[in-house]
Design brief:
about 170 residues; alpha/beta
């Protein structure tokens, strides 16, 4: 009996001194980390839906819609026609963008016709993020158009409005 007690005492001493205490506390530490992670997941931004009304119905507008659909920030990108902005906001959409007729044509002839952007006030964070993403995309398109126009101006000189329209026809 004395030997059994000595073995148990030795094993208990080794357990409490070395990695045994870590092995005992590890499940509790993992449980705390998991709990903290679940608390933080409530704060993170989840993908949200947006709607696009395509009145232009051109290859460029479809390409833009497809590119927006690939952004992981948006859970879905729906092309809508008849529904009003209020109806879409009631369905949980964060924003509605309207691409007006001849939008890309007028953009490339340097007419500053804006796309219409409606934001859901009930989703301020998502709406602000969408406005930032949309504004960035439009700025990139405008800068690309300005670079092309600048290169043309450098090579061929300035065009008047009639010449611009003739080139685009």
């Amino acid at each position: 009996m004395h030997r059994l007690r000595a073995l148990l005492l030795k094993d208990l001493t080794l357990f409490l001194r070395g990695a045994g205490m870590v092995a005992l506390l590890l499940p509790f530490l993992l449980l705390l980390v998991k709990e903290k992670e679940s608390l933080l997941s409530d704060v993170t931004l989840k993908p949200f839906p947006i709607a696009i009304r395509d009145e232009d119905e051109t290859y460029m507008s479809r390409t833009l819609i497809h590119m927006v659909g690939e952004v992981e920030l948006f859970s879905k990108v729906d092309v809508v026609n008849e529904e009003s902005d209020a109806e879409l906001f009631a369905k949980g959409y964060a924003a509605v963008t309207t691409i007006p007729k001849d939008f890309f044509y007028e953009m490339y002839v340097s007419d500053k016709r804006p796309a219409l952007l409606s934001l859901n006030e009930g989703m301020p964070l998502q709406a602000t993020l969408y406005r930032a993403v949309f504004t960035s995309v439009m700025d990139v398109i405008r800068m690309e158009e300005a670079a092309h126009y600048g290169m043309y101006f450098f090579v061929y000189g300035k065009l008047n409005r009639q010449q611009k329209n003739r080139c685009l026809q």
